[in-house]
Amino acid sequence: MSASDRSQLIKDMESSRNKASKLFDGPGKSEGLELLILGAPRFCSTRALHELKPITFKDMRVTKTHKGRVLLLRIVSVPCHIVGISFAAEDTNDRVEHIAIYNFPLHGIRTGPDLAALFPVGTLCAFREPSFRDPENRHAKAIGNGYFAQRKDYLALQRYSKGLACCSSPEQRLVYYLNRAQANLRLSNFGGAWRDASAVLSFLKAGISRRPPRAEVKATVRRARALEGLRHFQRALEEYMRVLALDVDEPVGHSGRTRTEKWGYQSEMGDYDWPELHKLAIGRTVPFGLPIGD
Hints:
Helix 3 packs antiparallel against helix 4 (153-165) and helix 8 packs antiparallel against helix 9. The chain starts with a helix and ends in a 13-residue tail after the last helix. Strands 1, 2, 3, 4, 5 and 6 form a 6-stranded mixed β-sheet that branches. By secondary structure, it is α+β, with helices and mostly antiparallel strands. It has helices at 3-25, 113-118, 140-149, 153-165, 170-186, 190-205, 215-229, 233-246, 251-269, 274-281, and strands spanning 53-55, 69-75, 80-81, 85-90, 96-101, 124-128.
């Protein structure tokens, strides 16, 4: 992190502290119920410090809980508390990151002088078996799905790719690949769609237990469509046949099989319905893309 980035992070924490103070203690503070709905309990280490080996930010992986490791930090900004306690801290390599502590018993202490006294700048901290979460990309899947629903396919592709770059969980990576394959298809990036769908099928073959519903059918359909787009009709037909072996009632499998059988025959025999092709070509602005074999 550059000196300017470090300074900006500390300024951001100061701004968050000021906003939190106004929210809870200012003239317009909320008097209603503060409600936060969370999922399953978060991991909390019970290991003794002497059993743990040091780790720094550069060796941590996003979304992973680093079992058997301890992160040594020094607080470099004022703290604030909204949902969890937040502050900027540097590791032993002087790298600064945003830190969040959840479920710490404050017993009524809020953002302000008391919290700053509890977590003063310069305090040394030891975080046992920490997790590293990227704030920008932790919602990459949801943001990508939103872009995809709006047919903003390049932005969806970008978000799914960012999610993959920051994700180590095979189950999550499978979902990103599956979604990115569909975005690639809509952009006619057939080679990319084939690679992504194949990655999903490789994960499934490896025996991942947690998977989206019908993941194998979806991935096989997307690989078939990618091969169809690449004009590999025989291979596409084989994939559509695999789709039907997985689900005999899958309509995309039936239509894909009929289409690729027809196009494969046209490519091999050169037998085309020329009057019909003339009708299909009327109004098209490009000389390619007709639904026929090569």
